[in-house]
Please model this.
Amino acid sequence: MPRSLLLLLTAACTAAPSPTPAPPDDPPVDEVPTLLREPVVTAQRLTRRQLERLITEVLPGVPLYIAAQYRDLPPEPERHGFDNHHEADGVSAAWVDRAEQIAVEAAARWVGESEELRGCRGRDAACVVQAVAGVAARAWRRPVREEELGWIEEVVGFGGGDVRAGLELGVAAVLQDPAFFYQISVSEPAPVEASRLPLTGESLAAKLALTLLGAPPTSALIAAADGLGAPERLREVAAETLQDARFGETVAAMHHQWLDLDLLQSLYLDHERYFPGLRGDAGPGYAEATGRLARDLRLQAEQFVTSAVIDGGWSQLTGGRTLWISPTLASEVHAGELVALGLDPMALPGAPFTLTAYTPSEGYQQVDGVLVELPADRRSGVFTLPGLHAGRGDGLRSSVVDRGLWVLRRALCEEVGAPPAGVETVLTGSGSAREALERHAADPSCAACHDRIDPLGLPWESYDLAGAWREQEGGVPIEPAADLGAFGWQVDGALGLAGALSADARVRACYVRQWARYLHGGQVDEALVQDVAAAFAVSGEVQTMVLDLVASEAFSTVEAP
Amino acid sequence: MSLSRRRLLQGAGLVAAGGLLPWRTAASVTSPTRLLVFYSMHGCVYEGWRMRPGGRPADQAWDAPLHELSEAAFSPSLRPLWPWRERVSVVDGLALASPLRDRAGFAHTIGALHGWTGAPIGLSAGQPVPAAPSFDQLLVPVLAAPWQVPSLELGVGTVLVPGVADAHHTPLPAQPDPRQVWQRLFGGLPGGQSQALYSSRARLVDAVARRYEALPAGIVQAGRAKLDRHATLLRELELRVGGFADVCPTAAPTVDTDGSYDERFEAQLALLQTAFACDLTRVASLQLEQLPGEEVGQPGADVHVDFAHDILGSALAADVLTTHTTATAARFARVLAALDAVEEGDGTVLDHTLVVWMSELADGAHGWDQWPVVLAGGAAGRFRMGRYLRFPATTPIAVEPAPGLVREWIGVPHQRLLLTVLRGFGLQAGQLGVGGLLGDDGSVVDCTSSLEGVLG
Model:
């Protein structure tokens, strides 16, 4: 077969790093030769969320329900709310079993409609091998090596010369390969005394693309790979990469986990209070109604954070008031705010702004909505998003503790231990949430932690379990005041707390840390986070902060074993 | 209706040649032994669970036959098991003692990890994680053949804390969706693919496994271990990939995670029954989320939030949790009936299975003492059935389940029961997690010796 054609695809990056440096032309007689250690190779498995995004790039046009099947893989255990921690990427029999089924089904579904099949129809096996190698280069995020072509040829050969079968087999194999499931990073050789080893340009290009875009490296990244070892060049290329529209999806994905939007998947709201028109939470329509609301709350939050980060920065992220509102959100969450603006919640004006959503029960859908700037006394940035507060409770009453814990752990990055063994963790009895929480303060075994948790949750009582603004609950006025003196804040209510969080350097530093966790797979370089946080405190530019974290030694090198 | 494995397999045309499945050896055709863990939440209300036949004392070790007891003599929580009294054994007097010597944390998490692994929790980025394999997984290489699904973790609802961890300490969360379980066991391909792809899956997995095995040696240790593990799992998959849909045809469940609690329970149980009947796996767990409020006479209530923690101070809460255990026992009886409905060799699948009913806590108030356990089936006589085994509190570790209610001694460390289970299946493990615990009096409490009266 004409392998030269294939090698043209890969020639730019197939040169393996030289195991030893070229000898100097004229070495000084007394110079001690530098001893080099072997390249270090690391492997971290992609998460199911990463695989779901990546497959749409690997198999263009693959039905999205196929991509969504990667959600069926056993979930990764979370660390600090993120699913990509390097210590939590083990595989199990159930994982491997399901991954094989998905690979086979994806290959069969995609090949039937792919241009690759059409291009090879009536041609020889070489065409099929070339087509599969093209898929492999995308799936493996690097060029295919010459020796790997033989393996592809072998697998394609299982099809007995049938073009379709060969393509199916080849693609199914590629989608189970270690280079697909794992981010395999190779270092350059380095002096034995080095504590960190720089990644090869090829590995760095692949890591940049996967981390920032959820995709294989672009042709520009591949072309730039050889120069990425220079810090200035890495920063330049990373900055260009951030301009790719797919970075917006990464922003949404990061904030989805930071805001813990997965909670919305199990949104439970008391039907009498929130859906009085339905006959009960087991009756017809309830699951659809809560499912639609949860979907739109998630879409709204993801659209907001993406827009804020791409078009603005920290000030917009924590102070923006323009939210996407669907008909469901207009009636279930924002009705009061819209009426206050003189708008009819049942007929919102404005150009439709359509978002795409996926739910297991309904598949992918286009959801229409409009963008509305909401009143400043109701919303102000990410901490006041309905999707952040919805569902944090027992279905009837919102949970001050859950909301306070989110702020303490996710916005302030404080480590909060679990309650000691044997300590009563659920407050029961009659009375308002505030009365119940007073028992926390009175019991020393509770107060040690709850003195910090509860004040951070109380102001959000102004939002009900659907995330809607409220002035009273069950006829009792909401009292959102809280003593936040322990945090150095003298503020009242939800908007006051949102403003305090926005202005606080600790919160900005925590936000940087959350990005570092997300971008570095849980391997946080404390010195880097502090340096980047210091710069971010001044600039407030999120994309620059992301750039600082990516164009760093922590990202571009691996630790020596 | 009694199901015969032979009949079931004959339906698929598999028994004609001497009754052997295509991949099974003659040795493995003799009735296999299995382990099933039935796992429920919130333990029990001890007073409603324990029995004292003939007024036997709590502070002595004794062993009483269950078959002599009338239905009324069974405790409220265990009464649904009365029809099975000769096929079950009740183990009374255990404690989850090791959590009391571990770091503090969310009790359900600590209890789940200790309960399954017998070991102290590990920490990763501040999160509690398994630091050892769970006891059921230790039996996978003992009981299962390489061509079988190593173990099945089935969930009804989302279990609060997964405790099952494989030999590499990787958590194995229970699959709550019956359709996903079916897909894993029996799912063929959806159609539309080439015959070559359908018939070449094993060769394909082999080709992929070779790629993992050929990776360069320079991969650092943590990555190497992951990839080696992946390769091993592929080699195991190679032996069974695509096979079960042909040899054990079973219709897909009609419910997924949106079904009612009982619909999901029955769907998972049917899959478990079939998996055992067709000998697709020999280690499994059926892990139950707490029952809905309707099942305990409290429509709309959340058993955990509204009642579980109050059992020591509220008669209503204690009644609700007792009812919760009783309703769970009724489901345990359903499991026994399903396994007993499948004929196998000289008995039934139940006869050849050890079913262990355990929980993440001893009681809803986050208690560790008086951990309730019921064994059933007996695994072909390896374990004694039809007994009520009482072990007095001999562990000198004080607990205070409620203010002023101090107990100076607690029950036998649960590791001893789990080790007994392992040894009953022929695994001669020296210890499970911890070998000993420091008593309040400075003595070392043994966690390694087998429990008397459990083995057959």
